[in-house]
Amino acid sequence: MENLKENQAAYYPGCALLTIDRAYNNSSKMVAKKMGIELVEIPDYNCCGIGEMKSKGCVSLYLPLRNMEIAKTKLGSKNLVMACSVCYHEFTRSIQRVREDKSMLDGVNAIFKDAGEEEYSPDGEARHILEFLYNEKGPGEVRKNTVKPLNGIKIAPYYGCLYSRPSMYTFMGKKPVMDDPEYPHFMHEFLESLGAEVIHYGNEVQCCGGRNVVQDEETSFKLCSQTLSKAKNAGADMLALICPKCAGALDVNQPKIVEKFGKDSELPVVYLTQLMALAFGFSSKEAEISDMISNPLKILKEKGF
Amino acid sequence: MLNERPVAEKGEHIIARHLIEDDRIKEEKNLVIDGVDVSGRWNTFIETRVDSEYDRSFFEEIKKTVVGSRINRCWQCGMCTASCTVTPLYRRFNPRAFIYMMQLGNLKELKKYVDVAWRCVGCYKCSQRCPKQVNPAEMMEALALVVKKYFPEELEKKALKIDEDVKKIYEEMILGRGRLDLAKLHTGSMRKMGRSKELLGKKIERDAIFKMIKDGRAFSVLRLGTPPKWHNSKKAIDKYLKNIGTLEESL
Predict the structure, then answer these.
(1) What is the CATH class of A8-128?
(2) What does pTM read for this prediction?
(3) Going by CATH, does the domain composed of A138-302 fall within 2.40.420.20?
(4) SS3 state of residue B179
(5) Fewer CB in 10 Å around end: N or C, chain A?
(6) What band does A21 get if pLDDT is binned at 50, 70 and 90?
């Protein structure tokens, strides 16, 4: 076991961030490092269940907790940072469920035992990268690191569902404060610190239908077109995200949404951490802006990035 | 003409109108009772319904599952339905009513909604606002378990079949190999839906795929692999699921 240093944190990348959404993964690490925290990936991670294993009893709790256990035994860290909101939800859910219900903890530990792994004791927390950077470093640190402010760019922050909801999962054990479940504002504050103009459009915490995006794209397209067109009509140049599943629905599927609902739904989508990387002085190539399907590079170039 | 005024559609101002059969709603366009004109929307009556085909011990079965463990707490306020993302898109999707039917074990009534019951998007607005922490979002997962056990024949119908097939793909990868391959999820689901042709035929699809091949992301999926010693976890998971002894085993 190698213990982490003081300026390091255990980090869970997840399946999407290691593949399709590498831009979110790399930019998260870049900006965290710039702000003074090195994110160290846990070895041998497994999938969190992505919300699709909930009908399988304690298995849905075991999947995330196995990673918490790895962070503890391999890196000596009780806490685990992650950037994906779905992973974050699965982790906070598991920790909360086994904390409040002994029979579920027993069920999970029976699986741990059979797998020849160490038993789990619920003492650590899962942290979302946005909430983590806000609480550990704060918007002041973001402003301090901003060398190329995003002046004149109008950005609509999009939090989606599982970053802030439900507070019965996300609130537990958080220090010093957790974001408001109905009116989250951490991303607003970060964007303001970057020098961007924050757009209020009313769909900040609406759902993109991402969970059923594969089997029910009709519903997802409808929800996404509402969010995209509302943000666009409120004057936004682009939409900032903090979840790869939202990106799947709002960015990757955007050409299909535009085809169905018209140009009103055409709006560049980008990860918050990519914008932070740009403002912190990284190039748009380093921030992998061109990975996004909805082409945010064009508007960013116009604005001088 | 004097007596004719705009009248609402039959029963349209009843909240959750779909829960009431059409022939139980009584409305007279022109009605005077004791000299008082109660025409139109003011004279809607719903005939009393007597439900006897239910089993109050049914919800104990749901209570034993991880997702349905709080079903007994629901006091039917309707905050879940009022908050729901899906309800405005599909009016018959009504979480409050579904939870009520599950509490009563009213399978006959529940069966009527099998076609929309799977549409929950898991946004957790209901769970955020529920005053009794019932966690309705996860109650919809419990509902899926009930459907699976009691109406297996319904799962053969088109939309539900796709939902089931996609869930199988997720399961194979997450439990079988410990990690999720998004490219395979996409191509596999398209194949199950009979839409493989779109992958390279449709311009929009083609563009996204070519882009990801060009920048190398399409291949990073191949490097994902399986966590070392995952077979031990897999064995333990299979053993747990085999002996679970609740609704969850019917999967």
Answers:
(1) mainly alpha
(2) 0.93
(3) no
(4) coil
(5) N
(6) very high
